[in-house]
Design brief:
about 325 residues; 6 strands
């Protein structure tokens, strides 16, 4: 099946913000903590047994709406949410329709509700798994005061999204690292909440291994994935970036390609670089500002108050002196 063109709906930028993809990654490509994997298996079972429960067992007649299989994938960045959404689509033999709402938001001003409906319509036509990335941007809590136009539009978008979920009978996945920002109305419409936790040491060792080709990637004998997993408590996404940095560093070293190997030092330098980059992203202009204890603020305030009082007394005394001089001059005349 040919991919959907979203140019007519959203313009050229829409092709980046809404994509219909053929899923290639499977659950073999992601290493998860046991609890997360069990929750995913439960979510997948709901999809595969949907026809039995709602059609052959007749529950669809008793529950004609709210049939969408909506899942919430919540957790820190780099913990495998997008890969797992792709793996679910792959296991179902369906396309994955990826919606990056944050990139579309500026395009939609004034037309957001109808475009939300258009996305669901296209996903229904293709029987695709619908994935909203950074979903807290679209499913945020509604404003109680709507003084501005953008607040009214945001509330309308959420209302339309909730309505579409009521009548949609496909698979919808919301991926977020800010699930607390979701509007409470989504609670009853989401079938399963899957928490993506940071991987433990055992999972991290496996993640290091699966990033490399088992036969073609040239590894030096000193590579110790267990030591890397033990020494660096990072996400799977961080490990992926570190592996690519390590491979680039090893490939750039002088000498014939046939003799080049990825050493432990390459991996350690790669993950150190990734961690340093994250520190830069968290940097603040005020991060290094000295902290002033509350008592110091009180002393400063008292000193300022005393100085102000002295200044007032001085000015009053000067004014009195000027008045006395003026009175003396008048009497002498």
């Amino acid at each position: 099946m040919a991919p959907i063109s979203f140019t007519n709906l959203f313009g050229k930028r829409g092709r980046r913000a809404v994509e219909s993809l053929v899923p290639r990654r499977t659950f073999d490509d992601v290493i998860l903590p046991p609890a997360t994997r069990r929750a995913l298996d439960s979510a997948l079972a709901q999809v595969t047994q949907h026809d039995l429960i709602f059609n052959r067992w007749g529950l669809g007649e008793r529950h004609p709406n709210g049939l969408a299989l909506a899942f919430n994938f919540a957790g820190p960045s780099g913990t495998g949410k997008t890969i797992c959404a792709e793996a679910i689509a792959h296991s179902l033999g369906r396309r994955l329709m990826l919606v990056r709402y944050a990139e579309l938001e500026s395009l939609w001003m004034g037309e957001t509700p109808k475009n939300v409906a258009a996305i669901f319509r296209n996903a229904r036509d293709e029987q695709a798994v619908l994935l909203f990335d950074e979903a807290d941007a679209i499913a945020a809590r509604r404003s109680t005061s709507v003084d501005q136009g953008f607040q009214r539009e945001s509330n309308t978008v959420i209302s339309v999204l909730l309505q579409e979920l009521e009548w949609y009978d496909g698979v919808v996945i919301f991926a977020t690292n800010l699930a607390a920002n979701f509007d409470p109305a989504f609670e009853r419409r989401i079938r399963t909440h899957v928490l993506f936790e940071m991987p433990g040491e055992a999972e991290r060792a496996q993640i290091w291994r699966v990033q490399l080709h088992p036969a073609r990637t040239p590894l030096a004998p000193d590579v110790d994935f267990q030591a890397l997993a033990r020494g660096y408590e990072v996400s799977g996404g961080d490990i992926r970036n570190a592996v690519l940095k390590a491979a680039l560093a090893a490939a750039a070293e002088p000498g014939p390609d046939s003799s080049k190997r990825i050493h432990q030092r390459h991996f350690e330098a790669g993950i150190a670089d990734v961690i340093a980059g994250k520190r830069v992203m968290r940097q603040s202009l005020f991060a290094d500002a000295p902290l002033v204890p509350p008592e110091a603020n009180l002393v400063a305030a008292a000193t300022a108050s005393s100085s102000a009082a002295l200044a007032l007394y001085f000015l009053a005394g000067a004014a009195l002196l000027v008045a006395l001089i003026a009175l003396a001059v008048a009497l002498l005349k």
